[in-house]
Design goal:
GO terms for molecular function: heme binding; metal ion binding; oxygen binding. By secondary structure, the chain is α+β, with helices and mostly antiparallel strands. It contains six helices and 16 strands. α1 packs across α2 (about 35-45). The protein binds protoporphyrin IX containing FE. The site of protoporphyrin IX containing FE has 23 residues, from α2, α3 and α4.
Length: about 400
């Protein structure tokens, strides 16, 4: 962080940012800002490996010489700080470090030390307010995955979609387009996250063929998703290994096959699928490892969906829900940019579809909390025996929300 001199410069910028940030500036109105600046420098220096120490001498304009108070809880308790305020301050610190050229891998290490202080510093009683607070860290709502849930591109994560903190809610809409050599898939939908606890999503998938004789092929599917965070916090709990864990369910209804009327095929059941609707159940575990600038997610899904349900559910090769692992890893290049890869295992139930795993490499950009753009190169494997080509191509997704 540039030694004592560097820390002083960063802290000066940081203090200027927090005392002018409309999200938190009022909290600092009645306090001795030069003293706060001094204490923060000591604390950051201690966290950066010393040799300075946070002296924690508590003094303000009216209570001169009360004594030494080092714990963050007593320093902040009267302020009734919310999660959104805590995150705003941490973001200002990231911005201050960015402005002074501190590499993201270094600033993330400091954030890793500060994040667990949330337990002591956030003492406002939780309560869901009617206005969206956009209170979470940038990128920690994930993006919208192909079935509409908050997560990566292919797989749901334990993160609740959007930027509503535990005291608020958030909503977003997305459009995703995947184009391989012979097929395209468009997904659009809306999702709501409530209290950073519950997520509801609605999505429609529109799958099309472009190679004769499947050039008029069109299959639509609707998906309703529900996710509940059970335990853990992917962001704050940097000092324990426990990840954030959520469970989810997706109800999928295949709307039938268009464009194959001449062959008399109008339903996925005519291809051998046992059903045109079904449920996926999943458990996801997500952890942001600030020390390593990584986000990791593992999902286990019980499903009998063929190609996510686009080719129906179950078939001549099997009609039982099978447990399928899905994995995502993302490197947080900076506050706004993540680079990663995903893998999603899938069942093989249909004789006419040699279904394979999906995988991709992606870059996700979060210019603001209102919009994110994800681009990926995806491998979707072979899709039906009628076209034995490995399908791969570009994936582009835009999410916008409040
Ligand atoms: C990671 C988060 C935070 C850290 C590491 C932190 C650190 C500190 C430190 C070291 C002090 C100086 C205490 C002393 O005089 O010895 C302090 C005081 C203060 N902090 Fe924080 N703080 C955090 C979050 C917040 C937030 C979110 C707010 C409000 C939005 C806030 C508002 C204040 C105020 C107003 C004081 C002055 C208190 C006083 O002098 O009595 N802090 N903080």
């Amino acid at each position: 962080m540039g030694g004592k001199e560097g820390i002083k410069k960063i802290t000066d910028t940081f203090v200027a940012l927090i005392t002018s940030d409309p999200r938190i500036k009022e909290s600092f109105n009645d306090f001795d800002i030069p003293q706060l600046n001094q204490r923060l420098q000591e604390q950051f220096c201690e966290f950066a490996g010393g040799p300075c120490k946070y002296s924690g001498k508590y003094r303000d304009k009216t209570m001169d010489g009360v004594g030494t108070v080092r714990d963050m809880k007593s320093v902040h308790i009267d302020l009734k700080i919310t999660n959104a305020q805590f995150n705003a301050l941490a973001e200002d610190l990231q911005i201050a470090m960015e402005q002074h050229g501190v590499p993201s891998s270094v600033s993330n290490k400091l954030i890793a030390k500060l994040a667990p202080m949330q337990r002591d510093i956030v003492t406002a009683s939780p309560g869901v307010q009617s206005k969206p607070d956009m209170g979470k860290f940038l990128a920690t709502g994930g993006v919208s995955q192909l079935e509409g849930a908050g997560g990566g591109g292919l797989t749901p994560w334990a993160l609740i979609t959007g930027y509503g903190s535990r005291d608020s809610w958030a909503a977003n809409a997305h459009y995703t387009h995947v184009k391989t050599q012979d097929y395209s898939l468009g997904t659009y939908g809306v999702a709501v996250g409530v209290g950073d606890r519950l997520e509801l999503s609605l999505a429609r998938q529109d799958f099309k063929g472009s190679l004769a004789p499947l050039n008029a092929l069109q299959i639509k599917q609707d998906i309703v998703g529900l996710k509940v965070r059970l335990l853990g916090d992917a962001v704050y709990e940097q000092d324990v290994w426990v990840p954030q864990v959520a469970v989810g369910i997706m109800y999928k209804k295949n709307k039938g096959i268009g464009g194959l009327g001449a062959l008399g095929v109008t339903s996925v059941t005519q291809l051998g699928a046992k059903d045109d609707s079904g449920y996926d159940y999943y458990v996801s575990a997500t952890k942001v490892l600030f020390e390593q600038s990584l986000l990791v997610n593992g999902t286990l899904r019980a499903t009998k969906a063929n190609q996510m349900g686009i080719l129906g559910f179950g078939g001549d090769q099997g009609d039982h829900a099978k447990l399928m692992p899905e994995v995502s890893v993302a490197y947080l290049i900076n506050r706004k940019l993540a680079l990663g890869a995903e893998y999603r295992h899938k069942p093989h139930n249909l004789g006419v579809d040699p279904e394979k795993a999906y995988y991709d490499a992606f870059v996700a950009w979060f210019p603001t909390r209102n919009v994110s753009v994800t681009a990926a190169y995806a491998h979707l494997g072979e899709i039906t025996v009628f076209n034995k080509k490995k399908q791969k191509g570009w994936y582009l997704s835009v999410q916008t929300g409040f």
